[in-house]
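Entry type: protein chain
Record version: 2
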Amino acid sequence: MNNHPLLSISNPVKFLKPPIPYDISQNTSAINTKQRRQSKTLVLKSNKRSTTSLTSSVSVVRRRNTNGGGETTPFRKVGRDDRGQTVLLCALGYWIQGSRCFPWLALNFHMAHCLSLKPSTLQLVQYTASLPMVAKPLYGVLSDVLYIGGARRVPYISIGVLLQSLAWGSLAIFPGAREVLPSLMALVLLSNLGASITEVAKDALVAEYGLRYQINGLQSYALMASAVGGILGNLLGGYCLLKTPPRILFLAFTALLSLQLIVSLSSKEESVDLPRIREVTPEISAVLGIVKKQFLDLMGIVQADEVSQPITWIVASIAMVPLLSGSVFCYQTQVLNLDPSVIGMSKVIGQLMLLCLTVVYDRYWKTLPMRPLIHIVQLLYAFSLLFDYILVKQINLAFGISNTAFVLCFSSVAEILAQFKILPFSVLLANMCPGGCEGSITSFLASTLCLSSVVSAFAGVGMANMIGITSKNYTNLPAGILIQSLAALVPLWFIHYVPMSEPGFEKEGKRAMSKRGRRNRRVGRVIGQEVFAYRRERET
């Protein structure tokens, strides 16, 4: 398809005085037909949203046909009912994703008290169960290129929810599944496998929907829904553990997953107005070839500095800090003898803080320079880790603050800041996603974050064993917390890897043109293949 002459760089543009009237009466029909064809080409090109070119060799361009072949159905206008169905599917999914703390709180107490696991073993079990989430790029690539029933997002959500229902339902129904550590680990791994598939599909759905309609910051609303789920999950989980055994919580969460499964099965991909494939040509039916090509495209995008440097910083800022969450949890429950309701309520307050931070970010901080914002958040995170030091050394009692009140107010601050720190990076990469790679990019970020958390947890277990932190001896726990806080300051040395601003948040609308600009703007018309342009002279 030939480019329009106005868009061609090689086309010479002559700036002359106002042109002499040109007689084109003989070729009016031919020229008008050509101009209409060229204007139609311009409209089609303007509708294709192009993102910033990442490197000279990687050009990120929005494409309608994301499969490189095959025919997709034309886009249609989304009605109010379709938007409501989309909101219900995504909001319920993120709300239940945040509510996963409801069964996990019961599972942690079950492993600590019923199975009598050591702090280091408990932490190893918690983060080893996250290993299926490291493979999220594979799920993202499959979601991008492998269609199931003509759709590529909603079916994967249904599959992930089904796997979670099977895992938590088995833990609730079969006593041997939750009393033996190997079987418990297998079911927890199955649950996280389903959760990771569901999260990848939902994140890709939100990113693709935002790019399709040029809506920036949808990830903020997703985090809000997840925070609301975390608030209710921790609140109900803490109080239910006082009166009911953990298996009842597992069964209740299975019922929630069944509701999500019904909603996802009743949802259709057309309601989200995404391209739906009709037929696949034999050349692209080889799934392995498509997956390989998608991985190569993903690697090409990730290797660009605009993508690799922010990911490197956020991954390093998490992996460099050795986690002591298992030791602190056992200290609170075994030494301080805090009730499950107190632990759950502290998580509720933390999720409320996360919700407030997300709302403020979406309303006011989204347009701020990204690097100073991340710098401040990282500093606050490093200092908030010292709250555990104050609790272990019982400094709070010297100021008349009880252990219960201190845990309620300050125990979850560091965890919430660590979660909030990820939000700007999620929005940044979602705005840079090229067409057809939404699932690959978002899943790659989630996978690297999960892997960095696993590395951080294993480093914390190694440090706890080195300095002698056990379930009967917490003497060196304050020293480990100080090492944590100092390690959180190290990423500030290479904060320049974080970009100053996020793309896509410029003020919309046309900029007001100055008088001089209006006077000197170029006005021209196209005749044939030549461009006659002139500067409008100042009228006297």
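Comment: The chain has 23 helices and five strands.
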